[in-house]
Amino acid sequence: MRPCPTFLLVLLRWVRLRMCARRWRYSNGNNSRLPLCVRQRWAYLKLMVNSLYYNSLTNSDVVMDSLMEPIFWMVDLLTRWFGAVFVCLVVILTSSILLIAYVGLLPLILNTYSPPWIVWHIGYGHWNLIMIVFHYYKATKTAPGYPPTVKNDIPFVSVCKKCIIPKPARTHHCGICNTCILKMDHHCPWLNNCVGHFNQRYFFCFCLSMTLGCVYCSISGRNLFLDAYSAIESTYQTPPPPYTFRDKMFHKSIIYMWVLTSTVAVALGGLTIWHAVLISRGETSIERHINNKEAERMAKHGKVYKNPFNYGRLNNWKVFFGVEKRSHWLTRVLLPSGHAPYGNGLTWDICPIRKDMIPV
């Protein structure tokens, strides 16, 4: 009784092999009739489709990134081309506000305000202006930091697939700059530069100074804006009052200044608050996304993820600003300073202890 099932099994295998052989010969016969260029392109197309599933780590995110690659490439190309345009736009808009402030508002302040208020407006306004100009210039001209391209003994966490060089911790590739950036946060088109290890402090201080300056202009110019708006609005409802050309230009300039500074204060203020939260947590914009995904992954296994670069809220700010003693809060935070950031951006101290790193 036993040989019968074995014989049937062998017979079924032989029939299956014969059928597979016939199918293979049929497919090769059909393909051989096609032109060589068509067969090569068909093989290349099948290779591209199969490459989306080349290993077990492939998921929907990898497939979507591959499909969206042409769009990403176009966005990177346009951002690279228009970077200089964005920088010129920042300079032009800021210069226009300064022109209105010096030509229209400063004489008004000197003639109508009391001496204490004159000192306050002139002192704070020029301090704010110096902070904006200094940090914007440094943020655009300071290189964010790049990993070495020659052989070295620096520890790395991965190899960049585009640069084909080792990537230290917190290093990411920028498609717009087409290079790897140390402690990369993002590529800022308004700076025409990447925000990385060596210029992140300049970027944040510029955002903070510009936000404070716009809030200052918006609050201090509110009454002037209401008066100017009422003057212009009345010309459409009642006979126009005897305003000269200079008065009309002054009113329109006040409205332009208030609308622009208020809009920038809201938009840039939100960005500044977001980066302040990231600095308090000891992470960048890219690391925020990575840490969230890692926390979700470890939560599924009943574990808690801790950011190894988080030294505590106060210590994170000290490391970010380079504060090493009490006087540095004045010389390095409240005043323009070109000191280098903490560390070299290649290696990082792992200090999860919540004690005070810098006794300030």
Automatic annotation (TrEMBL):
PROSITE patterns: DHHC. It catalyses: L-cysteinyl-[protein] + hexadecanoyl-CoA = S-hexadecanoyl-L-cysteinyl-[protein] + CoA. GO terms for molecular function: protein-cysteine S-palmitoyltransferase activity. The chain crosses the membrane at residues 81-105, 117-137, 201-219, 255-277. Its EC number is 2.3.1.225. Residues 1-20 form the signal peptide. Residues 158-289 form the Palmitoyltransferase DHHC domain. Its main location: membrane. This is Palmitoyltransferase.
